[in-house]
């Protein structure tokens, strides 16, 4: 397939592009800067210049492709307003891509987060939240899945709280960044809350499988670690950076504080059985050993 990818030069996107090319697909990559365009070309893709807010570029990319994988997100969690703007930008992009694909039976794979379900690990059958700090993302992804009734083979790969590679990425990477700045490897609450995780190279395989095989309107879980306790994550970060490990106020994490404090394990049993997905790369606590002081 000729696949249009947004966010193709990020931590996850670069792994997805490599996975697609390795499987014999060709890639059109949205590139918002000269550096991104050069990175896409160096990886073996064909860049299409434009940012996520450039709806004409999104239409052009989708029109040239046999399928679309959406990964781009502003990832600005500095304030509730910044997060809301990022969600609104992505929502407009998803609506634009979806409308370009209506009636084509082409695959459209988007991403979301795994939901939190009180008292147990969430599964692929659980709905993603449509309220709260990132509820707008949930509504947008739900809209993508509903395109299944309009001739789009839409699916969603739900990513866990940390998608990691060489010790970087995801919410664990946010903890590492705050630890470097503050001098404390902190965690909210008592630290017993659990976060699921997956290696970026394993997640990339699932995006390819969803593109190739997922039925319309389905959701999948890219989860390897069902749930690592946050205090264990912070302990590895603290040891690697030679910093004290201790609880910190939930307000430390701004608009993400409520999410960071929640227990949110997740299962991928159905995904593994139905799509034959089997993670092979290091799990989170092992991969965090790659953090450089």
From TrEMBL:
What are the GO cellular component annotations?
A: cytoplasm
The UniProt record lists the NAD-dependent epimerase/dehydratase domain at 3-218
- Give the transmembrane ranges: none
Instruction: Give the top-rank taxon of the lineage listed in the UniProt record for this protein.
Output: Bacteria
Example GO molecular function term?
aldehyde dehydrogenase (NAD+) activity
Region feature Disordered, mapped onto this chain? 116-137
Tell me the PANTHER family matching this sequence. Answer: NAD(P)-BINDING DOMAIN-CONTAINING PROTEIN-RELATED, PROTEIN YEEZ
Q: What is this protein called?
A: 3-beta hydroxysteroid dehydrogenase
Q: What is the protein's species of origin?
A: Amycolatopsis azurea DSM 43854
């Amino acid at each position: 397939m000729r696949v249009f990818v947004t966010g193709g030069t990020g931590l996850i996107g670069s792994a997805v592009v490599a996975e697609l090319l390795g499987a014999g697909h060709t890639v059109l990559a949205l590139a918002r800067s000269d550096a991104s365009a050069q990175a896409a070309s160096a990886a073996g893709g064909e860049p299409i210049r434009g940012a996520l807010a450039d709806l004409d570029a999104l239409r052009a990319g989708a029109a040239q492709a046999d399928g679309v994988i959406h990964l781009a997100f502003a990832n600005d969690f500095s304030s509730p307003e910044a997060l809301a703007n990022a969600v609104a930008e992505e929502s407009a992009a998803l609506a634009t891509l979806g409308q370009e694909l209506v009636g084509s039976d082409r695959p459209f794979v988007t991403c979301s987060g795994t939901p939190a379900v009180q008292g147990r690990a969430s599964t692929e059958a659980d709905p993603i939240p449509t309220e709260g700090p990132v509820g707008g993302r949930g509504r947008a992804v739900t809209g993508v899945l509903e395109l299944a009734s309009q001739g789009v083979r839409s699916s969603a790969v739900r990513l866990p709280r940390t998608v990691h590679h060489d010790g970087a990425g995801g919410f664990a990477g946010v903890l590492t960044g705050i630890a470097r700045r503050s001098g404390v490897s902190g965690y909210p609450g008592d630290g017993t809350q659990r976060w699921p995780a997956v290696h970026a190279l394993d997640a990339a395989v699932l995006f390819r499988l969803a593109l190739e095989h997922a039925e319309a309107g389905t959701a999948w879980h890219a989860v390897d670690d069902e749930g690592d306790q946050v205090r264990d994550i912070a302990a590895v970060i603290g040891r690697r950076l030679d910093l004290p490990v201790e609880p910190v106020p939930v307000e430390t994490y701004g608009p993400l504080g409520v999410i960071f404090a929640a227990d949110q394990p997740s299962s991928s049993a159905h995904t593994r059985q139905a799509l034959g997905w089997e993670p092979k790369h290091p799990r989170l606590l092992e991969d965090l050993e790659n953090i450089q002081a």
